[in-house]
Amino acid sequence: MPHPIMFSDDDFGLADVRRIALALPGASEKVSWGRPVFSAPKMFAMYGGSCKSTGEMVTMPHALLIKVEESERPALEQDDRFFFPAYMGPFGWLGLDFTAAKVDWDEVAELIDASYRQIAAKRLIRELDAQS
């Protein structure tokens, strides 16, 4: 049985996440687990997620899930806007809750770029660097 769709195209921030993520070389979007997932071809970002809070699953519908570098993780974990996403957190992912504070879209672009650079093929990263 497929996952139910857990987003709407007019969800806060989704258009911005799409604009940023799909501008990266080789990036595409598909729906997985009922949420928009951005891949190149491996997943580097997801819109929306969930976390466990006091033992209960809490949906974070307006959030960005990204893979973070281990050296960046401790600083990001100190920021209240970030959360440990269910299922993906143990694999190096964090979530940024768009409802926790005013969203800095330059920061979001940097987080997406950093996640992409950990996942994408070297030729795609070279292509991205050549665009700069």
TrEMBL record:
Signal peptide span: none
Database matches in Pfam families: YjbR
Coiled-coil residue windows: none
Keyword annotations of the record: Transferase
Entry protein name: Phosphoribosylglycinamide formyltransferase
The keyword Calcium appears for this protein: no
GO molecular function, one term: transferase activity
